[in-house]
Design brief:
The protein is α/β, with parallel strands linked by helices and about 250 residues long. The protein contains eight helices and ten strands. Strands 4, 5, 6, 9 and 10 form a five-stranded parallel sheet that branches. The relative contact order is 0.23.
């Protein structure tokens, strides 16, 4: 992990925007589950906060999600890819290895992009995407750029991305624990959540009863009360370089 040009990078991808302003991008991913999408959209609408949504092919092709997809586009949110089949690109214990070929990667992501176009997203408007499992390496970053799309990842430090954990999982985190981790991080760091790419999910499925999306309304209200404004990921990262500068 390194800082360069006021951006924070990890394995060749931006994971945090400049910290000089109290701006946050609210990032949402969806794959197998999407039961919280309407609740998320309601919270964003109530606070006039733009969001950035990244969906797999399975999510995009699900008939139950079509109304929400049309709504989020109509209400001006960003929508980008999250892969088609949600493959694991590199082992959890050895990020230097790549588990897919360049051709497999391109084919999968192109399918995801085609589904986004079918949903009404112009291909030329898609610059940013977030990888499946939020796990990648330099190969995946480089192959993304070959397709004129830039990979980014969420900002670490909070438990926001743990809202997918199921009740019986060893790594389960309650919504209250997740909520407190975000606000505690904000209050305990000099630059707070400035430039944060804050990731949660639009659904966690039947295995989790304590749904974090029900806390989003109060979270956005609390952060706004602390002086933060919200931007789409393409706005927050609009001046970002395509690649990590040397020695960054």
């Amino acid at each position: 992990m390194s800082n360069s040009g006021d951006y924070t990078w990890d394995h060749g991808a931006i994971i945090r925007a400049p910290r000089n302003e109290k701006k946050i991008a609210l990032i949402f991913t969806g794959g197998d589950f999407g039961e919280g999408t309407e609740t998320v959209l309601d919270a964003l609408k109530d606070h006039a906060a733009p969001g950035s949504f990244f969906f797999t092919g399975d999510y995009l092709r699900n008939e139950a999600h079509q109304k929400s997809i049309a709504r989020l586009l109509r209400e001006g949110h960003y929508m980008g890819p999250h892969s088609d089949g949600h493959p694991l690109y590199c082992p959890w214990d050895d990020r230097s290895k790549t588990l897919v070929t360049r051709e497999e990667f391109h084919r999968d992501l192109e399918k995801n992009l085609a589904d986004l176009e079918a949903a009404g997203v112009r291909r030329t408007s898609i610059r940013w995407w977030i990888p499946p499992y939020e796990w990648y390496n330099e190969d995946i970053v480089r192959w993304s750029l070959e397709m004129d799309i830039q990979l980014f990842n969420f900002t670490p430090g909070t438990l926001s991305n743990a809202d997918y954990t199921t009740d019986d999982a060893p790594n389960y985190r309650s919504s209250e624990t997740i909520y407190r981790s975000i606000l505690d991080y904000e209050s305990q760091h000099d630059d707070g959540l400035n430039g944060f790419l804050l990731l949660t999910h639009v659904g966690s499925g039947p295995g989790r009863r304590d749904k974090f999306h029900h806390r989003l309304h109060s979270l956005v209200a609390e952060l706004a009360g602390r002086g933060y404004t919200f931007e789409r990921v393409d706005q927050l990262l609009r001046n970002a370089p395509l690649e990590q500068p040397p020695n960054g």
